[in-house]
Design goal:
With about 240 residues, the protein is mainly α. About 70% of the residues lie in helices and about 5% in strands. It is built from eleven helices and four strands, in the order ααααβββαααααααβ. The strands form two sheets. The chain has a two-stranded antiparallel sheet with strand order 1-2. α2 packs across α4, α6 packs antiparallel against α10 and α10 packs antiparallel against α11. The longest helix is centred in the last third of the chain and has 25 residues. The protein is globular and about 60 Å long. The protein starts with 6 loop residues before the first helix and ends with a strand.
């Protein structure tokens, strides 16, 4: 496969190891980000030897990184065959949806009663940056701002550790979010409209309306899966 068509080559093209940091940790983080963002699609082969050669490091930290990703269910290691990027596990996606819906609804509804003008202003600024990203077609930037918005809302409520706790739980959720942006037309526009509605309800301290909007926003992932499965290969998914 030509280098330009090899997702592993593309995913590691700009990666530079920091000699002051753990090599295994850096390789893990780079591969994890590439998997979550769809740069390494499900079922992509991850050759230990190829990765080692591409980033000029021994195979030991690569092996350690892949083992950690396997524990996190982001890759599958087959003996005598090799390592593949794991498909999106629908059961794990449902777990992530349930946890996020439960925690975000509870936290954001309470936040609506105590949010400060400065916090509302920052929330509004993030949404405005999302509008700009959508209008300019910068879909990657929109997704990064989406992540920032959800994290900051937890931080506004004094629950930054809850967001940290959610990180490993929501990875399958995040994979689907990035795949939606790349495969399903209009997803970013719909997400932006939902964020704008949440902002307006937060500003109005409309607790009931906000709770319903947050639940709908998170739970939409179930409906979006059907649209995504029409566009993405069946091999991307597993029960």
């Amino acid at each position: 496969m030509p280098a330009a068509e090899n997702p592993l080559v593309s995913a590691l093209a700009q990666f530079k190891l920091d000699p002051a940091q753990s090599y295994a940790g850096q390789v893990h983080d780079q591969l994890l980000e590439a998997i979550v963002r769809g740069k390494l699609p499900p079922r992509t082969a991850l050759s230990e030897a190829t990765i080692s050669k591409l980033i000029n490091v021994s195979r030991t930290p690569v092996r350690e990184a892949l083992a950690q990703l396997a524990e996190e269910q982001m890759v599958v290691i087959y003996r005598q065959v090799g390592t593949l990027v794991a498909p999106v596990r629908l059961s794990l996606l449902e777990e992530g949806r349930f946890v996020r819906s439960t925690l975000e609804c509870a936290s954001h509804v309470q936040l609506a009663l105590s949010i400060t003008p400065a916090q509302l202003q920052e929330f509004g600024q993030i949404v405005q940056r999302q509008r700009d990203a959508v209008s300019s077609g910068q879909i990657d930037q929109f997704s990064e701002l989406d992540e920032l918005m959800h994290r900051r809302l937890f931080e506004f409520a004094g629950r930054e550790h809850v967001w940290t706790m959610l990180e490993p739980i929501k990875r399958q959720f995040d994979r689907v979010r990035w795949l939606l942006l790349g495969h399903v037309a209009g997803h970013a526009d719909r997400a932006l409209q939902e964020h704008e509605q949440m902002l307006a309800q937060m500003a109005a301290r409309d607790v009931a309306g906000l709770g319903a909007s947050v639940a709908s926003h998170i739970n939409h992932i179930t409906a979006h899966i059907a649209a995504l499965r029409e566009q993405a290969p069946d091999s991307y998914f597993a029960a």
